Amino acid sequence: SHQWRGLIEEYREFLDIPADTPAISLGEGGTPLVRSEWLSGLTGGDVWLKVEGANPTGSFKDRGMTAAISVAVHEGAKAVVCASTGNTSASMAAYAAKARITPIVLVPDGKIAAGKMAQAIMHGGKVIKVRGNFDDCLRLSRGLAEHYPVALVNSVNPVRLQGQKTGAFEIVDALGDAPDYQLMPIGNAGNMSAYWLGYQQYAELGRATRTPVLRAFQAAGAAPLVLGHPVANPETRATAIRIGNPASWKLAEAARDGSGGRFASVTDEQILDAQAALAREDGVFVEPASAAGVAGLLQELAAGDSYAGKKVVIVVTGNGLKDTVTALEHHGDIDDVVVDADIDAAAGAAGLA
Ligand code: F0G
């Protein structure tokens, strides 16, 4: 039998990290690529979901964090810091716990989902709530890492991208080649940049015959990449991508241009509707931000774009359990059904009788 060893051991030869770095792993990567019958039917294409919510802490951030924490520990770090809209901090806290070092997280006060906050706290994170947004938190984190003995593990740390690019490797390994298109949400812009690295590397190595067109979607109220300038006060219900000045702006533009792709925006309504539809139609429950790629596909279909006959991967980045409050606020307007502990009452309420 084969136990997945975590992505550093599975892909070490392809990662630009010191060869002797011991892996600090929670078994991340190796996530399911699930065919969407719903979206394949709608498009006449072959649409797959890369379900990153199946990672150990429930988001793709674990790919970057196993790499960043492994290298930081190898270099002697005793503490790590990040700014986060919630998933990076949850992941960092878990990997720091595994490594027995101190995690310090800076988050925008009142703007991170409850599940993510619980993760950071449970894993022993020193959680600092900042009166400001993600962009403020990132500025502070950079400053702390510059002036104090603490390693920065945001995706401005290039080791993060080395871990995250393995998502592209897994997709090619599963499909036998790169897809025609990849759609995904974008916030701080590290992930799209990392996927582009991975797809390019596999093409150069001859493990793929091509690279996909990359299309990345922002929330309309937090769409600096679409607008072409920073947004001072980003707003969206999809708090994971509530970012006004992405750190990997230039890298993501290079990924867009190099792949022949584009950035576009979708409204919160579109995002939350796509989240609900994906849960109902395909059995895949993702957090709001993670539905931006699905919302983007639906928007493009409505605008007359065609994916007929094409192989499409949508990266769904985080687990729906991260933010049940937003899900139920938007979709839970159904009256509770409460019955006595009686089979006839249950059958009646279920519509069976
Ligand atoms: N989806 C989810 C669920 C995220 O948490 C993030 C980013 C993104 C998409 C966007 O990825 O930033 O690489 O473009 N979350 C970061 C965090 C900002 O702090 O957890 P990106």
The number of strands is 10
Overall geometric form: globular
In the sheet with the most strands, the strands line up as: 1-2-10-7-8-9
CATH architecture designation of the largest domain: 3-Layer(aba) Sandwich
Strand content: 5-15%
What structural class do the secondary elements suggest?
Answer: alpha/beta
Number of helices: 15
- Sketch the topology as an H/E string, one letter per element: HEHEHEHEHEHEHHEHEHHEHHEHH
Mean pLDDT figure: 97
As for the CATH topology of the largest domain, it is: Rossmann fold
Which range best describes the helical content: under 10%, 10-25%, 25-40%, 40-55%, 55-70% or over 70%?
Answer: 40-55%
Overall CATH class of the largest domain? Alpha Beta
Radius of gyration: 20 Å
> Please, how many domains?
2
Uncertain runs = none
Largest sheet: 6 strands, mixed
State the end-to-end distance.
Answer: 47 Å
Which compounds are bound in this model?
ligand F0G
Keywords: Amino-acid biosynthesis, Lyase, Pyridoxal phosphate, Threonine biosynthesis
Enzyme class: lyase
EC number: 4.2.3.1
Modified residues (N6-(pyridoxal phosphate)lysine): 61
Summarize the structure.
The chain has 353 residues and is α/β, with parallel strands linked by helices.
